[in-house]
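Design job #97: recover the sequence.
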């Protein structure tokens, strides 16, 4: 993907380079960055990775849409963003249309650890960003997204032969399971969710499990609410280990921060004026997912994630309507050319 983008830029005389985000993100490629004119103050972004492999994808062109043959993902998330941005850049460069300077970034690792946007060193002139990466249809855009914190809990008990001396063991698995059973998992309130994914013990069946590790996440539109739920998690593990010989270690890290784009933010006003020019229905939305836009907003670059029409993302039924490809390309062109 990265090679394709580098060749695309070279064959059109577009200034481009690959940064070193790959070294830190642990991937072969880094972010690919196109600099149009002086790079301007606006950043356009989409991600190169897909949630599942597209190595054997067979695109099927139907009457009104493109799908895969049903055996793999099509890769609409986020190839729709990439193809519409490339088309807009291509039209501008070939037709020599008037445009402002701007920067296009194709990131790595959006689906895994957001390493692309995390390790991106954006030019200090960049004042706003547009990510082309929401599954909403063109005209819809994300003005509010939650933050998420990862956490890991390690419960330590004591190993012992489960048949010969169970009394001498401290069963970390059972203590951890009791705590997990008390956690309010799922949707906690309108704005907050919690989940536990991995939960394991390596003990053999004849050993009282001495150690258990589990990992989860807390997601909310409010940082304060995340911290509040985190305190509850700590309290529940303290209670379930209290009075036993077990102990626990807890660690957590922000995966991404929440954001909200105000109505009078220049990034939002510019988008709205472009959508009006195109006569596309304006639909601000809240999202429950995290994306590169969260990372850029946390870095102080107000960024909106735009609907590109990449529907049923991550499933084998992914599809994109030709109409949506067209409208997303028009939006990209308008944002790139419209001065305000
Ligand atoms: Zn995506």
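Job complete. Output follows.
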């Amino acid at each position: 993907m990265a090679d394709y983008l580098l060749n695309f830029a070279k064959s059109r005389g577009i200034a481009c380079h690959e940064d070193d985000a790959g070294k830190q993100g642990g991937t072969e490629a880094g972010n690919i960055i196109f600099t149009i004119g002086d790079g301007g103050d606006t950043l356009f972004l989409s991600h190169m990775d897909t949630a599942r492999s597209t190595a054997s994808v067979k695109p099927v062109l139907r009457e009104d849409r493109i799908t895969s043959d049903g055996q793999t993902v099509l890769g609409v998330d986020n190839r729709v963003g990439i193809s519409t941005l490339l088309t807009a850049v291509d039209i501008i460069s070939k037709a020599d249309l008037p445009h402002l300077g701007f920067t296009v970034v194709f990131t790595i690792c959006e689906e895994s650890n957001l390493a692309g946007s995390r390790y991106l060193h954006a030019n200090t002139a960049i004042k706003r960003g547009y990510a082309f990466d929401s599954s909403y249809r063109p005209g819809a855009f994300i003005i509010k997204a939650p933050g998420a914190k990862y956490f890991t809990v390690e419960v330590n008990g004591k190993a012992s032969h489960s048949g010969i001396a169970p009394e001498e063991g401290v069963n970390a698995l059972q203590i951890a399971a009791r705590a997990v059973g008390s956690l309010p998992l799922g949707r906690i309130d309108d704005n907050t969710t919690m989940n536990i994914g991995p939960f394991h013990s390596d003990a053999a069946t004849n050993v009282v499990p001495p150690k258990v590790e589990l990992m989860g996440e807390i997601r909310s539109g409010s940082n304060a609410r995340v911290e509040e739920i985190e305190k509850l998690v700590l309290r529940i593990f303290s209670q379930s280990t209290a009075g036993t010989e077990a102990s626990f270690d807890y660690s957590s890290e922000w995966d991404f921060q929440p954001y909200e784009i105000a109505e009078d933010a220049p990034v939002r006003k510019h988008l709205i004026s472009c959508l009006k020019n195109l006569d596309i229905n304006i639909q601000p939305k809240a999202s429950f997912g995290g994306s590169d836009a969260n990372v850029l907003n946390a870095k102080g670059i107000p960024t909106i994630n735009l609907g590109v029409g990449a529907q049923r993302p991550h499933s084998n039924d992914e599809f994109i309507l030709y109409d949506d490809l067209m409208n997303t390309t028009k939006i990209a062109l308008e944002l790139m050319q419209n001065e305000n």
